[in-house]
Amino acid sequence: MDFIWILFAFVCGLGVKLLHFPPLIGFLAAGFILNFAGVQPADSLETLANLGITLLLFTIGLKLNIRDLLKREVWLGTGGHMLLWSALVSLLCIALSTSGLAYLDILDWQSAALLGFALSFSSTVCIVKMLEEAGEMKTRHGKVAIGVLVMQDILAVLFLVGATGKIPSIYAFGLFALLLIKPLLNRLVSMAGHGELLPLTGFFLALGGYELFNLVGIKGDLGALLMGILLSSHVKSAELNKALLSFKDLFLIGFFLSIGFTALPDMQMVLVALLLCLILPIKFMLFFFMFTGLRLRGRTAYLSGMALSNFSEFGLIVAALCVDLSLLSKEWLVILALAVSFSFVITSIIYRYAHTGYSKYQIQIKRFEKARRLPEDIYHQPVNAQLLVVGMGRVGKGAFLALSEVLGKQVWGMDADRDRVERQKNLGMQVMLGDGEDADLWDNMDMSNTNLILLALPSTEDIRHIHDQLRKAGYKGQLAAIARYEDERIEMIQHGIDHVFNFYTEAGTGFAEESLQLLKKSA
């Protein structure tokens, strides 16, 4: 039976990818197809799904700075949006209950309010996977979206405690002791080395945090998230995240498949689910105006709102609880499962064109910006930058250091990760904060002295988009980029990049050149 899941997940995922859509759409479809075919899910599928979510939250914690949650735009934006959205959807459901539509005519004020609350959450699984694939986890809008998701998870725990009446154990106060053992946790990760023991250490800490919180009556997922946060400042946090990446993606396939096994829908349920998806633009508008009202830039508000405009798997948990309390009919579980699935598909498709959409409607979106900017959103100009390296990861940093030895202060670096920029500035490197896909950044930057820009980014789609932004902003200099595979190199050359380095080929050439220098010295 396990092979059947793998077979359908592979076929549907590959088929969707060939149509240039995200594979998770295929995984969702595979779950519904298997359910329709009468295949019964085993307990192992649910186990895989739970493992995937636990590892996902742990890896989010590894990349999360706790200070990001304390920012006003995060906690006030989350709370304000949740209140406005819940009230609006409640009123809408009550208004539609008089229309005679199936399943809506049985709603009262209490059930409508709970339904609005359930639909106010955004999907952590969908959004994080989407941001990771786009390489935008550390961007300004990515951090805002992740901060909102974490705040929503905290509010979810508070709701479950209040709704079920299950008060956490008195021993929950002992969880504060985790702060005291943080040095021990850091030591464990350091001792794990770089081999197979490192991902095993990640599993141990993620599942250990889950079980520890579960034992004292708190949602275990929060334990995995907190354990990741405790390790986020460790020098090996990025390596640990990379070691767990394949496991997390594989297990999350189980999560997407499991949604299709919730129940079999009828046509009326499908229509009601589609009707719920029609209000997703309202969710986006609320996020956008809430964020711009809190003085975020139009671009940040637009992209964050676009990413958060979907429904969450937590809505199914709320619906299941309401069914148990006889506040909703059991059919609503199926309707919400469909609505969540449809919203995943909609967001995955639309967000791929979010940057293009911003470029197209940039002038209209910027009209909603406040005149007074947040300190993080003020542009900094590079001084006398003849050469700019965009993306200061391992490859970009290496290129920056090598070029600085030749050109000195004429070389600048730029990265969207604020923490990385601060670390490199402390090392004396000439680095500035900036998102290469930010059209406003290039429009406001003086590039008259810049002759060459190196795009050291992992995503070929991001590189192509930055190329378009730069040319639109009037940049006339040369553009160079890196590629991991030969087909990616050819694709970027055809798009107009002046020179593309094959990462593995050029690394081997550089290694050979350095080795020949050693041979000359010995001779």
Annotation, overall tally of beta strands: 6
Number of contiguous helices = 25
The structural class is: mainly alpha
- From the N-terminal CA to the C-terminal CA, the straight-line distance is 65 Å
| Beta-strand residue fraction | under 5%
**What Rg, in angstroms, do the CA atoms define?**
24 Å
Lateral strand order in the biggest sheet? 3-2-1-4-5-6
- pLDDT < 50 stretches: none
| Global outline | globular
The overall pLDDT average reads 83
Task: Bin the helical content.
Answer: 55-70%
Describe the largest sheet.
6 strands, parallel
Keywords: Antiport, Ion transport, Membrane, Transmembrane, Transmembrane helix, Transport
Membrane topology: Multi-pass membrane protein
Domain RCK N-terminal: 388-502
Domain Cation/H+ exchanger transmembrane: 6-349
Structure notes:
The protein is mainly alpha-helical. The protein has 25 helices and 6 strands. The protein has a 6-stranded parallel beta sheet, sandwiched between helices. Strand 1 (387-390), helix 20 (394-407) and strand 2 form a beta-alpha-beta unit. The protein is globular, with a radius of gyration of 24 Å.
